Each structure stands twice: as C-alpha cells, then as structure tokens.
Amino acid sequence: MKYLFSIFFVFAAGLLHAQSVQSPSKKIELNFKLVGNGQVSYTANYNGKPVILESTLGIKLKEKQALDANFEILSSKVTTFNESWKPVLGQKANILNQYNELTISLKQKETNVKMNIIFKVYDEGVAFRYDFPQQENLNYFIISDEVSQFNLTEDYKAFWIPGDFDSNEYVYNETKLSEIDNSKLDLNNGIGVKSIPSKYAVQSPLMMKSPTGLYVNIFEAAVVNYPVMHLNLNVANFKLSSQLVPNAIGDKAYLQTPCVSPWRTIMISDDARDIVGSQMILNLNEPCEIEDVSYIKPTKYVGIWWEMHVGKSTWDLSGTQDASQKSAGKKPHGATTENTKRYIDFAAKNGFDGVLVEGWNTGWEDWFGNWKEEVFDFTTPYADFNIAEVAAYAKEKNVKMIMHHETSGSVANYERHLDRAFDLMKKYDYPAVKSGYVGKIIPRGEFHDGQTMVNHFNFVARRAADYKIMINSHESSRPTGYSRTYPNYIAAEAARGNEFNAWSVGNPPSHETILPFTRLLGGPMDYTPGIFEIKMSYYDKSKKEQVHTTLTKQLALYVTMYSPLQMAADLLENYEKRADAFQFIKDVALDWDDTKILEAEPGDYVTIARKTKGKESWFLGAITDENARKSEIKLDFLTKGQKYKAIIYEDAKDADWKNNPMAYKIKTVEVTSKSKINLVLAPGGGTAISFEPIK
Amino acid sequence: MKYLFSIFFVFAAGLLHAQSVQSPSKKIELNFKLVGNGQVSYTANYNGKPVILESTLGIKLKEKQALDANFEILSSKVTTFNESWKPVLGQKANILNQYNELTISLKQKETNVKMNIIFKVYDEGVAFRYDFPQQENLNYFIISDEVSQFNLTEDYKAFWIPGDFDSNEYVYNETKLSEIDNSKLDLNNGIGVKSIPSKYAVQSPLMMKSPTGLYVNIFEAAVVNYPVMHLNLNVANFKLSSQLVPNAIGDKAYLQTPCVSPWRTIMISDDARDIVGSQMILNLNEPCEIEDVSYIKPTKYVGIWWEMHVGKSTWDLSGTQDASQKSAGKKPHGATTENTKRYIDFAAKNGFDGVLVEGWNTGWEDWFGNWKEEVFDFTTPYADFNIAEVAAYAKEKNVKMIMHHETSGSVANYERHLDRAFDLMKKYDYPAVKSGYVGKIIPRGEFHDGQTMVNHFNFVARRAADYKIMINSHESSRPTGYSRTYPNYIAAEAARGNEFNAWSVGNPPSHETILPFTRLLGGPMDYTPGIFEIKMSYYDKSKKEQVHTTLTKQLALYVTMYSPLQMAADLLENYEKRADAFQFIKDVALDWDDTKILEAEPGDYVTIARKTKGKESWFLGAITDENARKSEIKLDFLTKGQKYKAIIYEDAKDADWKNNPMAYKIKTVEVTSKSKINLVLAPGGGTAISFEPIK
To answer: Confidence class of residue A18 from pLDDT cuts 50, 70 and 90?
Structure first.
C-alpha cells in the first residue's frame, strides 16, 4: 500500500472563482466555478467534450437559510491520491484507488456558514460531496432538500427504473431520457409495496449511453446517515437533479457537524467495460472498521427457499403461504427438521458451505400486506423445526446453517429483537443471516430508502459485527459500498432478483446484462442464480412463468454477478438430475485475485473472467440478452506458459431461453494464454467456463 | 375472591332500540339508544338527574366506511359482576370490583361490520369501550378518528391542562369550561417540548365540578395498543369529544380484530372523596400477567438527582449540565463512585431500600434539545463511576442500586439497546430503573402520547418483566391502570413533578390537591416529595425559585400521593440537619392494607389515612392549597380498642409556604379510634401523622 499526497495550490479567500482538476489519465476534467449570486457550479468534460453542462449544487435547510447561494471561496486545494488496498473479499486482491482531489472551502456571506465541496476525479469518473465542518454557525441541522444538478448535453439512452422510495425490484426500461414516464409503466410486476413520487423520478444508479457511444452512469457512494438519492429528470432539457427520499414528515436528513453527504458519482467512459469494472464506489467508502475479519468467508449455499417460490412447499406451518400467497389448498411446510437434514446432506456431499432455511420460525401464517407490527420474534422455531437437532446435525456434517430473518418491513419490531435473534444464532452456530424487508415500513410513514432505513441497514451490519455474523439483506436500500467498511455486510438483494421469474412477469433476458452497470456497482448481489428447471410448468402445468434464461446462462451468472455469497437456488433433485452441469456450480470460486471485464454492453451482453483468490484457476461467464450472440475471446488473461483444462458449459445448438432453455453441452479443451475460444450464446443464453491449471 | 355472573336479558336482533343499566347502588343510570340514522348514543344520570346528555359514539376508519351510523342492534345483554382481587402492591389489600355491565352487539347495515359497545356501570361512574370482534368483514383496520362524545349539561368548573400531545407536565388551570383557551396560557413554564393541537383541546383526566356541587371526571382506562385520548371542547355548549393523539402521518391507531378500545370513563359523585378513592381505573384493566411477583417490592429511595436540580452538581462528566442547562462555569459531576457511596451509606443507615444515580453513563454532554438519535447507549459508565465497585459496595451495605435510563426521547435508540441495558442491570443487581423521555420523540413525527409510544411504554414494562425488573417512567404518557396487569411498572411521573419547583415557575400549592383527582387515578406517581430546603436561594442567593410548600406538607405528600416507589428527594445533609422531621419519611409505609379518603376537594385540600400492609400502624397526610386550613378529624378508622402513639408533624403557628415554609413542630399524643385530632394547616401547608400501636 502506498500513498502519494501532494498539495498543489492553496488560494487565499476571495481571489478565486474557478478551479479545475483532471483525472490521472487527463481524460476527464472537472471544472468548478462560482456563478450568479455566489452559486456553486461544476461542469465535467470527457476527452475535451462537455458531458455535464453547468450544474449547480445546493442544500436546503429546514428552519435555516438555504446553502445554495451567496457563497464566497475561502480556499481551494488540489491533491493527488494513489493507494491500493486489499478487500477482505472482492473482485480483485488489490484495489487501486487513484484520483485527483479538489477541495473548495466556501463561506456563505450572510450566515457565515462554512461548507466545503470536495471533488475526486478518477479515470472512470467524477465524484463530489458536501462537507459540513464543525463550526459555531452550524451544529445540528435538518436537510429539507438537496439540489445537486447533473445537466446532460443530449438525449441519452437510459436504463432506468422508477424512483420508487420503497422498492428497487423493477425491470429496467431502455428508452431515451426524453421518453421516461413512470405513468406509462405496467405496474403489475409482482412488487408488493410501491411509492413512486412522480412521473419523471428515476433511481440511481442511472446507466446511460449517448448517441455517439459515450457511457455515463450517475450514482452515489457511502450513503451513511443520509437518505438514498434518486433523480428527477426534466425530460425537455435532460437536466437531472437529486431527489432525496423523505421521512414520515417530509424531512430528508438529520445531521450534526462535522458531517458529509454521500458522494455523488458520475462515471464516464467511451468503453462500457470501464463502468462494469470500476471499483470507484468501493474506493469512495471508508476503510474496513472490523478488526477480526476471520469470520467473513465466501459462502456457497443451498436452501429451503425455491421450493416455496415454485409452490411445492410453504413458509408457514399451516401450509398456506407459498410465494403465490394465494395457495388454494394445504401444502407441506418446507422448513421441517427432516427436509433441512436432506439439504445438509446435499451440502456436505457437494462441498457447499451453508444451508439457508426460510420459514423456520413462527409468524408466517399472517406475515404480509397488513402493516402488522409484531409479526415475528426471530427466536421461536415452528414445532416441526428442531433447531438444536438441526444445528447438531449440521455441525456433524461440517455445514453451516444460514439464519433467516424476515421482518415484513416491521423494522421497529426487528430492532427490539435483534440482540435476542443474534444470541440464538450464536448459540446454534449460524455464521450468517439473510434478512428480508417485504412490506411497508414500521415506523409507519418511513420508506425503505429514507435516512431511517439506511441507518437501520447499516446498524444491523454493525450490530452483527459485534457477534461476528455476516449479513445478506433482501428488499433493503441498494448498497453503495458500505461493504468496504463493514465487509460482514457480505451481500444484499436490493434489485429485482431471480425469484421474480417464478411467479411474476419475471426478468427479461437483458436484465442480468444491465445489473453489472447499475446495482452491482454498489456491492455484491444475492441474485440466487442456478435454476436448472427453468419452466414453472414443470411443477404445475397451468403455470406459464419461467426463468428467462437458458441453463448455461444460469451457470455464467456465478461469474458475471459478483458476490462472495452465492446460492445454488434450485431444488436439490434438479441438480442431482444434471450432475454434469451442476459441476460448474460446485467448482466456481466466490473470491478473486483478479477480474477482467472482457466484453460489456448494457442491455446486450457481458463477458467476465476472474482468477480464483490464491489459486491458478480461472472462471469465465458470458451472457447475452434475448439475442443470440457469437464472440471470439482471447485467453491472454491466463498465466503465460501455463496449460489449463477448460471445461466449457454452453448452450446446445438449438437452445433458446423460451423454446428450449435446458439444452446444453459440455466440452473440455486444453488451452493456454495464446488460445482463443469462440463463444456461441443462444437467445437468452450464456456460456460458463472453468480453467483449471494442468500440473 | 368471588364471582357473581348472571345474564339478565338477551334480545333478538332488531327488536330493541334502547336499553338501560344502573350501578349497584342505583345512583348512576346509563341509557343506551340508537338515534337518527342508526347512530349509537348514550346518556348518564346521577340520582335521576342528567349528567351526560345524549352523546353519540363512533369510529372513523382510514380507507373504509366509518363506523358511526347505520347500525342495527343484534343483541343486548346485561350482567352483574362482583369480585375482589389482591393487588401486588396497592392502596388496599383487597380491591372490590363491582359493576353492572351492558353489552350492545351492533351490525352496520351496509358493510355488515359488527361492533359491540360495552358499558360498565360502577357506583362511582360509567365506563364504555368499543369492541371489535373477529369477523370476515373487518380484520386489519386503521382508526383515523374516534368520535366519542361527552355532552355535559352545564358550565362546570374544570381543572384542566392543555391537550398537549407531548407533555403532561403542566400546572392545572381552574376555570369554567367556557373559559378554557390554550392560546391564553403562559407557556414559559419549563416544559421542553410542547405540541398543543388547538385552543380548546384539554387532557384527560379532566376533573370538573358543577355549580351545584356534582363532581365529574372524564378519563380512560387500559390504554393498550391505542393512543392517549385527550378531549376537544365546544366552549359554547359544553360538549366534549375524544381527541386521539395521531402518529407521524396523522393516523390514530392500527388494529386487528378481535380488539377493543380503551375504556372511556365518566366518574360521577356528589362526594369528591369517591373520585379520589376510586379503584375503577385499575379495575378496568386486565389482571396481573406476571407469575412470579416476588421481585416487585415497595421501594423507598434516595439518589443523586436533586443536587443537579438545585445546581450543585451536574449530570455530565464535563460539568456543564445541571437542570438550568445554562450552567455558567464547570461544576462537579454528581455521579461519582465516592458520592454514590455516600448515598449508599445514608440509605443503609436510615433503612432505605435503594439509591438512584443519574448521570452515571456517558452522553450527557449533548443530550437535550437537538432531536439527536444516538444519545446514550445505557451501558457505558463515565470514567469516575465505577459500576462494579458501586454494586459491590451496595451489596455489602444491603442497599439496592436503582438504574437510570434517560432516552432523550430517542426511543428507537433505547429499544435497540434495551436488552443490553437490562443485561447490565442484572449483572450488577439493579432491581429497578427510572426511565426518562425528555425531548422530541424519535421515530421522528411521533408524539409522547401516540399509539407508538403507548406501546413502547407498555413494551418496556413487559420486557423488564422478562428480567424481573421494576420500571418507573418519567415523561411518559400518563398511566391508565396498566400496573394492574404489569405491576412491575411500579410508578411513573407523567405529570408535573416536584422538580419543576427547583428551576421554573414551579407548582402552585394547589397542585398536589388536584393530582389525586387526575393523574393519580391511573396509577402511582413518582412525585419525588420530601424537600426540606425549600427555597433555592439557599443554594444560590440570586435564585427566587422555591418549592410551593411548607416542610410538613412535604411529609404529608408521602401519604396523599400514593406510590409504592417513593423518593426522599432532598440532599442528604438537609435530612441530617432535621433528623426529627426526617423520622416520618423513614417511618412511612409504601404499601397498604386499607386507605380512607377523609377529606377531599380538588384544588383545595386532601386528607388521607392509610393502614400499613400487614401491620397495625396507620399514617395520615393532610394538605391544603395556598389557604390555611383547620379541620377536626375523627380517628374512627383506627382499630377499636387499640391504643396508638400518634406522632404529629405539623406546620408551626407562623408557617407559610412563601414567607416561612420550614417552620414545623412535632408532638406525640396517645389516641384511640374514639379520638379526634385537630389539623391546623398553614397556607400551602400540611400535616403528617404516624400512628404506631402501643403494645
């Protein structure tokens, strides 16, 4: 790890009204300027061409004068930073954090309130934040609005979902900015709780592509003690501005100086791969706060879960609650001691780390949709789930149990029980918990993406760290790199996961080609890939739902969707029937020395190769959207001079996500770094390859 | 304990539109009637004269049809109930619960929603509640408003405080109903957080007296999973209606059938003593839910507390936070190990049960007024408070430590730490905790008196019961008898306590003569009496504040203000200086076999005698308002044939709360049940008497 830190300029107050800073590669330039009546503004250029036109920044305060004008510059400072750091688990063993920084120290003339704007300019983009130093004139304050502008030059194509305060589980829309309109969406999409504030509000990260092929992504990093930022669009002029998620009484954030806003990020590149491969969001977060990270381990797991999604068993003991929530007759309860032992046996036999059991605890008979406060107590097993017996059996088989805490959105209730819930986990040696937040939030009036909930999700991670427990949150606000600081926050769902394919319109084949440009920028996603029985008609002839994929695309997702926590989501028997394909899931690594983004185009395709942490083996995943695709891949990422056995899992010739999704072939070839491989992907298909060094 | 239970009438649907029921003594009559368009109404008479004119009842629902009209009667039932039960701690060893009950089963014509109105008619008043049975047509529902009317006949004199959603710490106003107007109040009264919704909103309990001398009190009992009910007044026609306290988004209550509202109570008597002596509120609560009550004990305590109120020491270690919150210079921290040991020594020497220490834990440097969320963690002692050493010392001296949890209104934070806080208490053998809720509530937007907070206060009592811990809440919503169900909820402040006398306009001499008619009806109050150094100029010559009392009135309060948890609030040295008067505080009991309300007039005077639980000793307390008072008391409550040594602590001849408050005399006489005692009370004065049987 090395630091280079040099101060370039320090200007005296009042002498300066504009300042610029470039990225290390000089491709990106950020220009700061005071305009109009002392308003803070910036522009951003890429290769000399404007990307962000003059955009102003400001914070509105409750019961205080807005911090959006009348500023004068006290000083300005440019520094260079160059570091590399080692994530506990990650896409690379060493992450480079290199940028030039511009700090503008401001004072508002009338109020004497001081505020700094800090810009960091990376090779793949710009970040800025508001910084409120400790001062006499500003101690506690309430943000009623943030007005950060991102004024684009033209009508980009955007990959967008509505700026819903409560859900990020949407299918992406691919339209021009000028065509964005939430009122035209079909909202019969399986999402339980929706709070869309307006027609032109979209979520960040917002991935865009200009008509000339420039890729721009607006997002944020280090959302800590602050609400999520969505974006409001002016469809007429392509001006975007920040939309903070409010609390129950319309306030946005409660802060005390010294404090900072999250980083607002604008990634810019003419190569889409730079966006997918960026570690900028992680870099903008604080270093690891956990001293003993020994318990934070890559975790591959199976679990009692998909069987409820396909309607084979239920979460509740009384046998009515499968994922359809309209189960006609009584079905078997999934989380029995006996069924759990079957999963433990399977995990042990196939080298999996863990077994998740959902529906193990009382409360599922009436858990959803009624804004109910006392739903679960997180400590009382159903009568047919003997937690002590299960724990002993898992220990005997050297498998870890993964806890499940569905909160039903009743966060107040969860926090009241959290210590007891974690105590139970420690008692029975559960090292990780999957949490869920399906439903309207309690405290009532709060949204999933407000400051209260952001704080809750981060609090749970910190509290879990007290117990050396790993967290995997579902239906949480989407991560913005906090897993750098609390790497026990090992994964989150926080986007439309694979489960929607089982009982809703599902996720189109392009979905997983967009997520690496959006959701995955903030941290690992528990997407739950690995579905081998792709059509739900297998379980119930009347069902038309299916996963929008071929079988080998499900394999490729283990590589394209980075997560150190990965589920093999399908039923055990479906894996046993296709042991040859299942071999890839058994083999694939979860933690990496290096990652190469080989190909990427949002909405179309992604091809990624990764080197196993501490080993010579590599894995490659390639996926496509609804279109078939051919591609020649150079294997020059492999170690020179080393021979590898490459096992290629690919779509059969006639495979097709819709008509023939489960046709695949497996072939083995010997390759070196000089080899090339021709990828042939079916419509909605994918290829997965493991490269094992030949000794 | 005996039950008499007989069904008088069951009518078939539609046959009946009116029904009446009388109290056991037949003094009070309750009449139910369907009026207008199927509206539920009632009237109440006392000795044949109307007290409540036709008043309608109804519940408004969010997103559902209001339950306020179009009802038909399905059936009606009258039953008689007669029971006596033993409170764990109480004013009497056996409490009689005797009433006639009328249940009206209703169905709304259009919606088929069923609702019952249950009336209980006691000799001292009427109670009714809404009862929502489990039914197909009503499961989860949200109450947007309750419209229960209490239409009075005339312009009563009222003892009222504003219907503040956040505070009950007001001085009572004594005006006619027609003169009620919150906008005319002087709100420079020391209350930190105020939320007064309108000019004519007043709190319940509302104590009133008619021009002809009828006493009427409107209150509620068993407020569980429901907000507090205040009252809106129409000053023109003396109609009162329910004002439920809203939550952050304006909703009142979230309920699921089967469920009930709290009881709405109307106490009526021509003898004011019946109101003070009523156990109706307790009777309307559910029986004790705690199996092992052995840890619930009367607790007399001293503590590090008043010294912060008088500005002698501070809550915070850095020495800035005394009760003035504007301490000019650095003062000593109160909660040191050494100072605590001094209190332990004193408690041990004088037979006290416990020692309270406030300011023992980190966070007090910045604890108030900023809606701060993470204020205290309830587990980290200041460096100068060695909790282990203190606990060991207390154990050695056979004294119990009393914990202190100030939440600063940040309830979300408290709930996150509650198990840890209680764990710490058990570790160090603290059997009781005083909790505080000074400040605006977090979750933000909630009020102290909303459903969320009512649930919080009750939740803390239940959670404490898990640990066998007693709770004494300050700045909570006022109790409505939940201590019958959870007797470990041993006391609460929840009204303007003695502390206000130290640093604000304080409490006028009449204050303690009103509380037995209002706040005390719902349960014990930790008023913290026993101040011997009455004028704050003793500590700081510039101070004009004082307790509005004579010294012996402070003694009398131990009898007139029932609580099984009582503080001797003054500094130890002030007691040591007046050991003769202090003897009464040492002697007085906290738990009683019997209670006699000898004299009572709201705003003027109260005289109460109580017999010690399980012993032959009695104690008498008599207090007056700003007027001197003489009274002859018959001692016929004493056991016939038994001789007693009566020690009389009374105001000296020239005593006066303002000019000469600390002048007292003590005399001893021998008395029997045939004796009389002449009470002579100074302006703002009082008399305390202990009766010890002579063997």
So the answer is: confident
For residue A463, the chain B residues in CB contact (below 8 A) are 416
Assess if residue B102 is contained within a domain.
yes
Number of domains in chain B: 3
Do both B230 and B350 map to the same domain? no
Nearest to A45 by CA among A100, A119, A126, A103: A126
Classify strands B206-209 and B157-160 as parallel, antiparallel or unpaired.
Answer: antiparallel
Distance from CA of A431 to the nearest CA of B (A): 21
B421, closest residue in chain A (CA to CA): A419
CB < 8 Å to B419, chain A? 419-420
pLDDT digits (tens, 9 = 90+) for A631-671: 999 999 999 999 999 999 999 999 999 999 999 999 999 99
Structure tokens at B269: 């008597």
Q: Which of A283, A303, A320 is the last residue of a domain?
A: A283
The identity of residue B674, as a single letter, is K
Cis ω on the peptide bond leading into residue A162 (within 30° of 0)?
no
**How many CB pairs below 8 Å do chains A and B form together?**
66
Mean pLDDT of A527-551: 97
Residue B12 pLDDT: 46
Is the pLDDT reported for residue B479 higher than 80? yes
A312: containing domain: 294-494
Q: Does B461 share its domain with B570?
A: no
Q: Is residue B274 part of a domain?
A: yes
Residue of B nearest to A370 (CA): B140
- Residues B203 and B347 grouped into a single domain: no
Let me know whether B576 and B674 are in one domain: yes
- State both tokens at B170: 């007001």
**CATH code of residue A333:** 3.20.20.70
Contact B248 A370 (CB under 8 A): no
CB atoms B446 and A443 under 8 Å: yes
- Domain with residue B143: its CATH number is 2.70.98.10
Q: Which residues of B participate in catalysis according to the annotation? A: 499
Same domain for B276 and B298, yes or no, is: no
Among A247, A256, A444, whose Cβ lies nearest the Cβ of B251? A444
The shortest CB-CB distance from B443 to any of A140, A256, A443 is to A443
Q: Is a pLDDT exceeding 60 seen at residue A159?
A: yes
Q: What is the DSSP string of B15-63?
A: S-SEEEEE-TTSSEEEEEEEETTTEEEEEEEETTEEEEEEEEE-EEETT
Query: If pLDDT is split at 50, 70 and 90, which confidence band does B4 have?
Result: very low
Which chain A residues have a beta carbon less than 8 Å from that of B463?
Answer: 416
Cα B311 to chain centroid, rounded: 27
Side-chain half-sphere exposure of A161, counting CA atoms within 13 A: 26
From the candidates A174, A499, A533, A599, which is the catalytic residue?
A499
Q: For B487-524, what is each residue's pLDDT tens digit?
A: 999 999 999 999 999 999 999 999 999 999 999 999 99
Let me know if A499 is a catalytic residue.
Answer: yes
Does residue B193 share a domain with residue B104? yes
Closest chain A residue to B445, measured at CA: A249
Is B370 in Cβ contact with A139 (below 8 Å)? Answer: yes
β-pair type (B215-221, B125-132) = unpaired
Rounded to two decimals, the ipTM of the complex is 0.95
Same domain, A569 and A448: no
Q: Are residues A444 and A576 in the same domain?
A: no
* Nearest CB neighbour to B370, from listed A140, A251, A372: A140
Task: Point out the residue among B139, B370, B420 whose CB comes nearest to the CB of A419.
Answer: B420
Residue A72 within any structural domain of the chain = yes
